[in-house]
Amino acid sequence: MEVLREKVEEEEEAEREEAAERAEWARTEKMMRPVEVRKQETTLTQETLGELEKQLSEIQIPVSAELPTFAKDTIDISALPVSYKTNTPKEEQLLQLADNFSRQYSHLCPDRVPLFLHPLNECEVPKFVSTTLRPTLMPYPELYNWDSCAQFVSDFLTMVPLPDPLKPTIKREEKALPKKYTIRPPRDLCSRFEQEQEMKRQQEIRAQEEKRLKEEEERLMEAEKANPDALHGLRVHCWVLVLSGKREVPENFFIDPFTARSYSTQDEHFLGIESLWNHKNYWINMQDCWNCCKDLIFDLGDPVRWEYMLLGTDKPELSLTEDDSGINDEDDVENLDKEDEDKSFDMPHSWVEQIEISPEAFETRCPNGKKVIQYKRAKLEKWAPYLNRNGLVSRLTTYEDLECTNILEIKEWYQNREDMLELKHINKTTDLKTDYFRPGHSQALRVHSYKSMQPEMDRVIEFYETARVDGLIKREETPRTMTEYYQGRSDFLSYRHADFRPRVKKLTLSSAESNPRPIVKITERFFRNPAKPAEEDVAERVFLVAEERIQLCYHCREDHIIASKREFLRLSEVDSKGNKIIMMPDMCITFEVEPTEHTKKLLYQYETLMHLKKEEKLSRHQVWESELEMLEILKLREEEEEVHTLTISIYDTKRNEKSKEYREAMERVMQEEHLQQVETQLDYLAPFLVQLPPGEKLTRWQAARLKDECLSDFKQRLINKANLIQARFEKETQELQKKQQWYQENQVTLTPEDEDLYLSYCSQAMFRIRILEQRLNRHKELAPLKYLALEEKLHKDPRLGELLKMFT
């Protein structure tokens, strides 16, 4: 293209030199040259230009068959401004320049994709791409659309399993024993032959599993290879390029206009760049994209790398090196500026109107508020907030096969839920459902994992411990066990595990409180209490309810390798004959590392046993309360999933019914006040003055008659208003009495729904009767005052006041 431009410039320079020579020769020879010679030179110049025009006209620009189409039924063309339907002379000139530029480009680069210069708009009028941009809408001055030949999947899925949280481990340093006291390890009585056979069997199982996985992987790879992407590298996408240097932008980066996500220019998914444009100019990438966009230099002032279309005075300058920056040739710069001024072309103003997006359309985010994106083995669905009644805004479904028939898992995201539900994860393989909640749930739920909502099934519930007074963090439940984890308690309880046996009667929600599961064993563990000695601080206690035994294990001192233990036989306080049982030494089995006389006394053991009995009773009661709480949580979750109420902000006046009712009430009050002001400004004597002849002066008798008529009319209106309120009051009372009589006659056969409707009607009727009664009483109180106020106004009226004084 540079070669073609240089050739044209040389021809123009030659024409200017010939014209100067002809002018000089004409001045010297006084126009004595023959006419035939001038005609011959003109013919030569015309032949050169004609050959160039013929050569350019023979270039065929390939046009894509798939042009953007617009649905006429969705776009009202008649409502669009004139700039959408026609082109100005300057725009027509720009289109001619663009067409000429495109022909030169196709001639010099026949193997490249045709330029995206002047597509058709919704009115099927060609428009240059730079005129579709409005500079006022750009967040950065250096903002360019990006035209790529690559198919880039911006939201590719990364299925990386997250590791389970690591459990804290406690390491205790143990003192090494002398060699003469070394404990001999027990003999290994296992058969080595059986162990070797088991190892072989496990290896065979692993080998078969690896073979199966390898075959499955090969099958999937073959399935993927069977459907190659025939359009890979041929698709064209428009992106946004933000250049560095202004607004403190450190480096160049791309922006996806559909998702508003930014990507580095070094991203390997970008296969190449065809052209760039902004609201001032258009550039073609002349660099090789063999290494994608990683080696591209975005210096738009370099005409070797970026060929520009319009030669303007505000084009980007070439980035100079230190050696080149010292060049200071003023004459060349002035001549270059003069040439640029001659060839410059100002870009027409944008024909696009300013984009105005309403809050409703902005919240919709996509057509009809729903968008579906299909990926390989996955599908992503998005909805606008409040579009779904359950608050669902996004759903990600992953599949096992490429045909997307076998579902692996489903992730659903929610917003504005009153139950604070944020994410629901459903694993179709294991049928495990996991609900994630934001802080603020009435039961302080954080995570709920379950397979069934039926009680006493496998489930795990995690809580926000700061929102609970008992410090409960997690509760795990199975049909036979319940495990709870605590943190930050004053009694240093950290763990409670309860084992149950099957109950006799079947469980129902109504009989759960009266029919608890029989407890077999309760195990409790405690953190270290620094205020107590280790040999007196219980680390674990086990209540063997069925065996009537209690086991205690104390914390181990740092200088010991084993902890003290005790076991009590929990017998009843009286025997079968009613005699009181006395504490016996065989009722307590003790192992102490450092025994003391105090702990050997029966009194100490008896007091400890009595205390443990109380603790056992309390622990059993707490386990029973935990069961009831689980049933309450399950019942609450079923109600929340059935109702799924959404929260509405107080600032959302269109959805917030309370705010809307309050605003309407305020508008009614303002309207009533306005009507009252209008009534006060009305002439209360106008209807009576019309009866008199116009222009006639009032006499004393006429003034008195007008006063009486006005007061009489006002009194009658007050009576009519009171009668109207009384009639409505009596009507509502009679209807309520009829409804009550009907209820008494049909009370036995009514359904719960009919009773609810009856109670609702009675409540509304009583409300209306009460309001009418208040209005009637208020009217009776204000009517005499209004009558006296009108009489006083008539006496003070300048038209009647002087005449009425003659009667007094």
UniProtKB/TrEMBL annotation:
Signal sequence, renumbered to the chain: none
Compositionally biased region (Acidic residues): 320-343
Top-rank taxon, per record: Eukaryota
Pfam family of the protein (one): MORN_DRC7
Stretches assigned to the Dynein regulatory complex subunit 7 C-terminal domain: 696-803
Coiled coil, from the record: 192-227
Name by which UniProt lists this protein: Dynein regulatory complex subunit 7
Organism encoding this protein: Callithrix jacchus (White-tufted-ear marmoset)
